[in-house]
Amino acid sequence: MLSLGSGGAKSTKPSFVSYVTPEEIKSEKDPPKQEKHPDLLPGEVEFCSANPILKYTQDDLSQRGVFGTLFCTNFRVTFISDEKPQEKTDKTFKNKLYGENDIPLMCVDHIYGVYDEKRKLITGGLVKNKYPSKMIIHCKDLRVFQFSLTFSKEEDAKKIFQGIAHHCLEEKSLKCVFAFSYMGTPSPGTDLSFCRGFHCKNKPKLSIVLTVNSTFTLTSIFFFSFFFRMINAVAHNHLYSVKTEDLSESLPNIQDIQQSYNKFKQFFLIENSTDFWLSDVKWFSSLESSGWLDIIRQCLQKAVEVVECLEKDNTNVLITEEEGTDLCCVISSLAQIMLDPYYRTLMGFQSLVQKEWVAGCHAFLDRCNHLHQKDKEYHSPVFLLFLECVWQLVHQHSPAFQFSETYLTVLSDSVHVPVFSTFLFNSSHHRESVMKAESPLAQSGPLSCPTVWDWSVQFDSKAQNFFFNPLYLEKVKHDRAVRKPHKPKHQRNLSLPSTAFKTPPKKGFFKDETDSLKKMLRVKRLSRWRGSPDAPAATTREFFESWQHRPLDYHGLLLPCLDGPAVHIWMQRYLRWIPEVYILGGGSVAVMTKLMELLSQVQDLKRVLEQRDSSQAAKLDHRPYFQHRLLSFDSSGRLSSSFPFAYTCYRSFKPIIPTGLMQSLMVTDSLASQEDEASSVVSFV
């Protein structure tokens, strides 16, 4: 650990000689150290590097940092420290593809440069000019990196800065993404491109949650042949009672979602302690004003309305939107999670994402802006919005879900890892055609990239245990050897097959056809059917309160509480990189440890009872029980609330606020004015 202006900094630069000790001058006569290089993945190529680079530790008071070498490859930006590694500790939760000092190129959100102490957002035009003294990188997983370029040779500093800016920010073609260089092959059985089969049982009507695929289209002749086949299917299934909801009218559009999230995420991209404490005074009100939590609430509310129609009123629902592959995917997926316990298991949830989002042609490439397109009209974190809604359900009804919040956090990170084919394309047809065309082995077969569901690519089996919720209340089958295929009551139909479309449609084409379909079916709008604009919320509350009075069943219908305080911030995802909020020996990991200890005692008592009475044991075997997965982490007293993500902390767990800063905070907030002003500093424990 080095500090600017201290006697411990090692450098051969003339501007730094006045701080070098005699021992360091003697060490300069020693043979030069062997250059360090990153361990490259298959297909990874090193573009440029610079040394020495100072990596700041986000402490604006002391400006401490670590010297090392900064690299840019076709996969990542990576920093390797010059310091000798301290006592090696085995990390239980370690990503095989990238570490804590690695930034996948696709994960870079923004780059800022400091020129003459002025911070500027880096764009293509600025890259061609002089390099900054300091480079700040904001990541899509909310990490923040700061590098000083002043200690390197001017040529090296300029090259590394321009290289990183070019490969992270410049618009590129799809074939330049690292996935096409990474020749990984998924393990057998990891391809979940299937769609889970649906059957109706004991239901007179087939419930539809309809989306319209606008990524590709057919010739008009094929479309109308298929359109009339769909109408015939509707007639044969007696779908004369259909409620409809146009999500384009009742929910924010993708631009509103993007703008809201841009405001929301700024409160978690912390560059130094001062920024954090300045934002702390009005933190909650600022988060609320961004509108992001309200959008989450609206989506959950709309999904509950759909579930109410299907479950309570036994009627069919037709949901539409202009594109058909954004909010339709969100609402349809949430409704199925609330209705069907299979989608609350790990495999069930993955199959849901695969069929509703991947096979359902959600435009991941455009929405996630993997190619850094300048047109911002199509950029929007729609899939992250879905994961946020799922996290709310997991947070409120933890025993109902087999997967943990760590699984959801890792899944949100994996969207921006340029290795997997799952989130890299706009449709299944797009994936198949591009991979076949770009494969160097096109004559013998298409290029094969792993899917994100092959978790062994990123984590070993011990780390994957963190994906499972140890408090999941598993429903035991009488015969575990034979598991009949699940037959849910409700079904979602895609109106058009994704494999058939070849050319883009004209704007509004599918909206016009959907309007025609609604007229033919004489459907009623969900809002009109429910009466006044306030009626949906009132009836939904009645539906929720009625469900609350039922006996608790984690394998039945599941509804979220939508009151203001019930919608929480996804703390693990958003606060895991901010040491100021770490709780040493506390947080969710400490709570989980205590619950695991209690659960272990309950399991031991259960085994004692089973040994005493074998007949009683047979009965106990058919009761629901908690799935007991012992997570292999150390004592909770040695861990922080950011576990299992952040192990290293350079900033203090007891941050100190200077008096001047505290006084400025007191002026802006009436509550802060009540604090004691006697001491020169204020320490928060």
Automatic annotation (TrEMBL):
It is found in: Cytoplasm, Myofibril, Sarcomere; Sarcoplasmic reticulum. InterPro entries: MTMR12-like_C (IPR022587), Myotubularin (IPR030564), Myotubularin-like_Pase_dom (IPR010569), PH-like_dom_sf (IPR011993), Prot-tyrosine_phosphatase-like (IPR029021). Keywords: Cytoplasm, Membrane, Sarcoplasmic reticulum, Transmembrane, Transmembrane helix. It holds the Pfam family Myotub-related. The keyword Transferase does not apply. Residues 23-39 have a biased composition (Basic and acidic residues). Its main location: cytoplasm. Residues 229-501 form the Myotubularin phosphatase domain. GO terms for biological process: phosphatidylinositol dephosphorylation. PANTHER family: MYOTUBULARIN-RELATED, MYOTUBULARIN-RELATED PROTEIN 12. The chain crosses the membrane at residues 206-228. This is Myotubularin-related protein 12. It comes from Cyprinus carpio (Common carp). Residues 1-39 are annotated as: Disordered. GO terms for cellular component: membrane; sarcomere; sarcoplasmic reticulum. Belongs to the protein-tyrosine phosphatase family. Non-receptor class myotubularin subfamily. Substrate binds at residues 253-254.
